[in-house]
UniProtKB/TrEMBL annotation:
Example GO molecular function: peroxidase activity
Full protein name: Plant heme peroxidase family profile domain-containing protein
InterPro entries, A to Z: Haem_peroxidase, Haem_peroxidase_sf
GO annotation, biological process: response to oxidative stress
PROSITE patterns from the UniProt entry: PEROXIDASE_4 (PS50873)
Plant heme peroxidase family profile domain segment(s): 1-67
SUPFAM superfamilies per record: Heme-dependent peroxidases
Gene3D superfamilies documented for this protein: 1.10.520.10, Peroxidase, domain 2
Length: 67
């Protein structure tokens, strides 16, 4: 994450959550190795989520709202 990217996130109010904001700030100041380690772990966890297919699942037009 470069400083311009972080500034853009702030401008768009994507860092309103204090813990998220602190994490992004820390990663933007040279701790990319930790970010990639965390990213790898989160991708591993997400791979364990059961995917619903056919009539069991749905594609949402808005992720925050159930169709």
């Amino acid at each position: 994450m470069d400083p311009e990217y972080v500034a853009e996130l702030k401008k768009k109010s994507l860092l309103n959550d204090k813990s998220t904001s602190l994490y992004v700030e820390r990663e933007a100041t040279g701790r990319a190795a930790k970010f990639f380690k965390d990213f790898k772990a989160s991708m591993k966890e997400m791979s364990l989520i059961g995917v619903l297919t056919g009539t069991d699942g749905e594609i949402r037009k808005n992720c925050a709202v159930v169709n």
